[in-house]
């Protein structure tokens, strides 16, 4: 019985197969590379980003902080102009949603600026501090500055959907102007002679560029045109619209007071 079963199987002779020895001589054998999955790559990117944010700092006299301060300054100037311009009904009706979009955009910029301010380097005993933990503590120790930054980020724009005439709510964004100042690198000795010479050159160039004549002709024509335009503005004879709302009246009062104070300063 066993002999019959063994006869059913074919006996294989190993000598009839040729083995190529180059596979044994070659050290770099063919192998299958294990590639990471998309989720693994995504986690590595998140870990790298978290590591960068954890140890991220901004030198107070760097070019990047200078450009960032420029962007924050643009946001502050935008709010100072927009909150005044949009009290007029015709402009508000045409550009309301554009206004809301830019408000949200610059609010995001201001929120990022709070993080940048908390990572701003400073000098301690002549050395620049770059430790992120110390930078954060130094920022939060400035309680008045922190309170000012948080106050400026209050989302008061939601009231505009309830009453779009109270655009002066954006006034609190103007308090962000403290973060617009770029700290110059003054931790080196100044050469007073160079500063004095540069000041003289700027003064000479200033007065040299002032030597020109107006295209209005003689002095009587200059004076008469100045009086004409001044009286036109003061008496509102130039078809200027009258204030119709409380916010417009407030703007008119502020402009008038500023003009009176400037006039009194010049004359007095």
From TrEMBL:
Matching InterPro entries: CNG_cation_channel
GO terms assigned for molecular function: cGMP binding; intracellularly cAMP-activated cation channel activity; intracellularly cGMP-activated cation channel activity; protein-containing complex binding
Keywords, in A-Z order: Membrane, Transmembrane, Transmembrane helix
Gene3D superfamilies from the UniProt entry: 1.10.287.70
Gene Ontology CC: intracellular cyclic nucleotide activated cation channel complex; plasma membrane
Spans traversing the lipid bilayer: 64-89, 95-116
SUPFAM superfamilies hit by this protein: Voltage-gated potassium channels (SSF81324)
Name the UniProt record assigns to this protein: Ion_trans domain-containing protein
Species name: Caenorhabditis tropicalis
